[in-house]
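User: Show me an example of a complex going from sequences to structure tokens.

Assistant: Sure. Here are the input components:
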Amino acid sequence: MEEALVHSEHETSVWPMAVGASILLSALSLLSFFHWQMPILGIVLGGAMLAILAIGLAGWAREAFQHAPEETEVGTIAVAAFVVSETIIFGTVFVAFWVGRIDNFDVWDTFVPAGLEASFAVWLTFILWASSIMIVLSERAFTRGDRKNAMIYLGATLGLGLLFVVLHMNEWIHLVGEGFTVDANVYATSFYSLTGVHTSHVIVGIAINLVLFWVVASGLMTRERTTFFKGAGLYWHFVDIMWLLVAANAYLIGGAF
Amino acid sequence: MQETVANPWFRASFREWIFTTDHKKIAILYGMTSLLFFSVAGLMGMAIRLELNQPGVQYLDPDLYNYLLTGHGAVMLLWWAIAFWGAFSNFLIPIMIGARDVAFPRLNQLSYWFFFSASILVLITLIPSQQIKMMWTGYPPFVLHDTAGPTGLYVLIVILIAGSTLGTGVNFITTVLRFRAKGITLGKTNLIIHGLISSIVVQLVGVPAFVGAVVMLFLDKYIGTGFFDANTGGDPVLYQHLFWFYSHPAVYVMILPAFGVFSEVLSTMSKRPIFGRTSMIYAIWAIALLGFLVWAHHMFTSGMPQWLRIFMSFTTVLIAVPTGIKVFNWVGTLYGGAIRLNTAMLFTLGGIFMFLIGGLTGIPLALPAFDINVHDSAFIVGHFHYVLGMAMTLGAFSGVYFWYPKITGRMYPERWGKISFWLILVGANLLYFAMMMVGIEGMPRRYVDYPEIDYWVTLNQISSVGAVFLAVGVGVTFYAWFKGLSGPEAGRNPWGSPSLEWTVSSPPPPQNFDSFPVEVADDWSPYKYH
């Protein structure tokens, strides 16, 4: 058995509470916007939420890198455990998609919009693959001690992620324009849910990579403590792999077959 | 920090409390929040019993009754039966494995703030216009209707609670895998660690399914998607499948840690190593795994293929095997032991007794032929209050009494504890046994009113009397815990247990152990008595 890990920690930290406050605000913001029908209040609370969240996460990352005395290298186990539960979240949407697909087998053809092209999904796949390769190159460069190239590759990862989101949203707008709205039929519901839940993960991944970019650029992260890098990379690969399943279901099994 | 070393948790400043990353203080925060909500949900239950004391609608307007049912169910399950074990995980796991703290102390604090935020949302439902009335299960299509109350509030309460459990899950799994002191293998750790961690693993895998289901509710209600809308090809039963995929395993989330407490207390109080230790560990994990293969037994009347019914019925009965192994091993542990019948031990024995009744009524419920006849009747309510309500609560109380000297450094008043135990045991059996009987006679659950049938009225009144005993008993326990704070010094190891948490002073110092790494002898075992 490996030597057990022990660490000493600060007894207090203010940052988790800041992040916690933003969590509460996000819930209140959603409730105001959707349920209490006070959209302005919802947007204001949402903005406050984002500001507090950004401050909280930045302070947290700074404290973690500056004060925690040693690297414990347990982050990858945690990310792996988190990915397991993320997989189940995706799983629920896949289940919803397949239940709809089977229940409506006979009439499914009438659900598929004319403007849906599986070839578009192939382009998106290439974009995400390229970004996954970029983050691997970036991590390699960083562990070599080549911070400049690490930042260039990480910037490419971010850029490709953003390109994916923009192209995808563009396609949604195009499809909605054709009358393929979320309430049109169960295919539309599950199509937008599958691609939506995936894109939301891409956006979270971009946010994580932004924090990563900041800790690399500011010199907070050193070559000896790359657990955050490994964790972020693991999450990004997970999002990439999930895209293959999402695209195969939403575009091929939903649209083409 | 060094300056806090001299201060046990109850002398910490307010600032230390709210910004703490110390697992022991976070445990107390979870415990106190949980107990507060337990009390409120208990009062809701008392109000329900008051209304059902006689036929007709006397005290509660039906809408308020629905809110009380929803609140009682959701809060008892999420804030008590699940969250109270969060307090145990936090307090015990790092000390029992010889660690300084959990793997991610700040994430641990954040998990509490998720829980706290969810608590605030629950408090919002106390406002009359914000009452949630969809039952804790939140089945569509009713949940999407305006008379069910604010769907969004229900959805976000579930999501925030899920955030808390996922943070805790990631944290404690990592802690147990990588922070055990040398020599404490997974096979050698305390059984309660297996109980707590198996329940945490179940949450990590199961909770996301519940989250997915309620997010679909949110989208259906506010965005107009058609997941559960049959008009556009959706399927309302889909929700039930996703919901129970977590919410059935959730019952093991509630009971597996209680099994852990039973094992610790039985072994320590009878001075015997736990009988069939390895089989106990396998049984815990078998229950955790099988728990994911039985969910549709909640839906035998919902419409599903016959083969699925048969499969789920079979797997449900199969769960009786590992649970049976556990019960027999507990009895085996007692055999020939030097049994010490103090409050903690009484609560454990009572918990096993209640679990036995709940478990044995569960076996016929696994059979569709019986289940469809009592589905949605008071029989089900009585059954799950035996298992979840009482076996879990007695286990939790037993755990608090057992570790009370460790947590507070003081000894609780034994006499009040025993009085409380007998009040609770007698009260709960009156309450829930009468409920099962009236259920078998056909009384449906969840209605505010029932027809004026003589023996129904009698049985309901027996239930209400039992509820009063139960509530008084719980109150006496709270009194005993309060009074214990000024009790005699307990010392390091009042029960003579070799488990690691008893080797440190009571209450444990902020660093837990005087020196690191913690070392144990090669033949160390938490159940090795001399």
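The lines above are the inputs; the final block is the predicted structure for all two components together. Residues 1-8 of chain A have pLDDT under 50 and may be disordered.
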